[in-house]
Amino acid sequence: HPLVHVNTSNLDQQSFTTTFTGKEFFVKDYQLKLNGTGAKKALPALASLEMARAAAEHIKPASKKAEAISLQGISWGKPFLLNENRQLDIILEKEGENGVYFEITSQQDNVEIIHAQGLASYETAEQSFKFDVSKLQNELQSNTREANEIYTAFSVMGLYLSLIHIRRCRR
To answer: pTM, whole model, 2 decimals?
Structure first.
């Protein structure tokens, strides 16, 4: 999996380590500007969620008849800024009968930084969350914004997307 590279588990915990180069396709157009610094490549939040899902899938017990993995109670820490060969770890610990607690971390100057944490639950199709797509589409259409308005707001918040990304989103 592109977000879960090496199994670094030991007897105490399940864990995986991923090394990012900053050239991955999913960070190419995603940049953050923090504390007055220039824009820097960062791991998108969605990529962190996929990393948690994939890691939970890797360690799912064979006895589980789960058809879905639900991520819940997500807490966000500092963004993971990317440069050459930066490592990101995901640590997983059993939580109850049907879940695992996950923590996505990195090291900077021998200090652990938490980027995201939450719970991944193994669910059957009957347990998994279902929603009404038509209702969601109606709700979204009643509160629309122009793309320029959205990207201006992102820019004010320090999130910079390349013109290529903006053009893709407008299609």
So the answer is: 0.75
